[in-house]
Every structure is written in structure tokens, then in C-alpha cells.
Design brief:
This protein has 102 residues and is an alpha+beta fold. 21% of the residues lie in helices and 12% in strands. The protein is built from three helices and three strands; from the N terminus they run ααβββα. The chain has helices spanning 18-23, 25-29, 92-101; strands at 39-43, 50-54, 60-61. A three-stranded antiparallel beta sheet has the order 1-2-3. The model is unreliable at 1-11, 79-89 and 92-100 (pLDDT under 50).
Length: 102
């Protein structure tokens, strides 16, 4: 079975890093309301779900952000692998861990 394609996306390679997603926000999420500063929308390649990445910490969440991203997000657990090299990593693994808990 094919996964759903939303917002004009396809399940081909697509963006892989946070830098790719930052560059392609308009392409993949055109018409959606803007996010607070320093947040990105990302679509899971595995599940097709949209989740959100704090560009300052590389942390992810499933809930729509309502405030600008900060280096410390209240209520979020620290991610020891977070770094300022957000363009080099993909946060998909974090989403899979959170999804498994639900």
C-alpha cells in the first residue's frame, strides 16, 4: 500500500536534513499558517505524520508550537545529542521514539 501524499508531496526521497526542510517549507507546506520563529514543519518519511522541529535545539514535538522556539523548551526532556549543527542531522528517530510511547 502507498502512504498518503499530503500537501503536494510524494514519498520519493524528499528532504532529509533540517537544512533541507528549512529550505523546502514553502514547497511542502504551502498554504499553511506560519509557525512561530525558529520552528519547522517536517513530514516523517516512515509514517507520513507532520511534526515540528525546534531549529535551536534540534528537538521535536508532535504538538503545534504556539510560541517562538528557545534553547530550552519547558516540559521537554533534554536531548544529549542536540547540537548547533541542526543542518547535519535528521530528527526522524526522535519522532519514532515518541510515537512508540503513544
Amino acid at each position: 500500500a502507498q502512504a498518503k501524499s499530503q500537501g503536494g508531496t510524494s514519498n520519493e526521497a524528499g528532504p532529509r536534513t533540517i537544512a533541507d526542510w528549512a529550505r523546502d517549507q514553502e514547497k511542502y507546506f504551502k498554504g499553511l499558517p506560519p509557525l512561530p520563529s525558529n520552528w519547522l514543519r517536517v513530514r516523517s518519511r516512515t509514517y507520513g505524520h507532520v511534526y515540528y522541529v525546534n531549529k535551536l535545539t534540534n528537538e521535536t514535538q508532535l504538538d503545534l508550537p504556539t510560541a517562538p522556539a528557545s534553547r530550552r523548551t519547558p516540559g521537554d526532556k533534554a536531548n544529549p545529542k542536540s547540537s548547533d549543527n541542526s543542518g547535519l542531522a535528521t530528527p526522524t528517530v526522535v519522532l519514532q521514539q515518541k510515537s512508540a510511547q503513544q
